Amino acid sequence: MKYANFPGTDVKASRLGFGCMRLPTLPDGSVDRPEAIRMIRGAIDAGVTYVDTAYGYHGGESEKVVGEALKDGYRERVTLTTKLPLWKVEKTADMENLLDEQLGRLQTDHVDFYLAHAVNGERFDAVCALGLLEFMDEMQKKGKIRYPGFSFHDDAETFKRVVDSYPWKLAQVQMNILDENNQATMRGIEYAASKGIGIVIMEPLRGGALTRNVPREVEALYAAMPEKRSPAEWAFRYLYDRPEIITILSGMSEKAQVEDNLRIFDHAEPGCANEAEKQLFQKVRATYEARVKVGCTGCEYCQPCPQGVKIPRTFRAYDNAAVFDTFERFYTDYLKDPTAANCVECGLCESQCPQHISIRQWLKDIHAEAMAYQASKK
User: Which end of the chain has less Cβ packing within 10 Å, N or C?
Assistant: First the structure.
């Protein structure tokens, strides 16, 4: 296992982090606690020192399982991170009350990193007005948290604003081969790192999508490389090559995944990718992007639609299906709420679209495809 230091802290963490959002489950959906505890402890025994959970993971069960797993001396061996559920904060006092509840679940008197969870611009402004940054200061003084951080889901401009707002020690962002120019962006990561903020990566495999239904064109690119690696290993390698990245989270739900990740991260050195591999990553991204059909960026200038059509949501889901060849799932989900059928072709959306997308035609085509799919199932 390879390790890296969080800037401005005394924390040295494993480059592979155990993400506890996708723990093994039983048929009823609850966490398989004995197996989850075995997996977490097994990963720690093999060198993993970073464990990540959150208030809402597995309906609140994740923190409790982690608390059990870290008994018997395991707590002292890890960097433990959990997150403040900002959507549950209605008044200032809620923040410390929630943290105290989490410490109880985790069976510890402090966490090493405490993150404002799922930050976006609107949510961040709301909780800052309730004293979020002052709360982070106070909890550090009380010893309930060692270092403050945030996890992020918004655009690059908002990311820079949040980075500049406070002396954070950790930023957790979504990044993978496909997201170099999305959300926080790789340039945003570089900026945060330049400010002394340690970077933790979530969704390195896009929720597993980069390992499932891999397009034949992408498979051919991987197969042409002299080093034979799985899609998962290539995806991780793209990330751990970057010196700005401290830890990469993997939501492991079975023992085989833990074992494979431990093997992969034996090679997790910054700068490990040669020029041919860096070119491969660019070709893979371009190949995936070429499968995009609509190209909606989700700016939402077309919203609200007077007829209630959920335009960006429909287009993003449709493009995702095109990229990963999951149309059947898209049609099934779309038919639960087929708002494209409400379009009256007024054209207001197209007059506002900076991408000049033929919105009305795409809505008609997508709805027709979904209806044809429904008819084929009868």
Answer: C
**Domain boundary assignment for the chain:** 3-284, 311-376
Count the residues in the chain. Answer: 378
- Write the pLDDT tens digit of every residue in 70-83: 999 999 999 999 99
Q: Using CA atoms, how far apart are residues 182 and 227, in angstroms rounded to an integer?
A: 29
Task: Write the CA distances from 14 to 49, 174, 351, 356, integer angstroms.
Answer: 5, 18, 50, 45
pLDDT, tens digit, 9 for 90 and up, residues 276-293 = 999 999 999 999 999 999
Per CATH, the homologous superfamily of domain 3-284 is: NADP-dependent oxidoreductase domain (3.20.20.100)
Q: Which of 215-224, 278-287, 296-305, 314-323 is predicted least confidently? A: 296-305
Q: What phi and psi values does residue 116 have, to the nearest 5 degrees?
A: -65, 120
Three-state SS annotation for 276-340: HHHHHHHHHHHHHHHCCCCCCCCCCCCCCCCCCCCHHHHHHHHHHHHHHCCHHHHHHHHCCCCHH
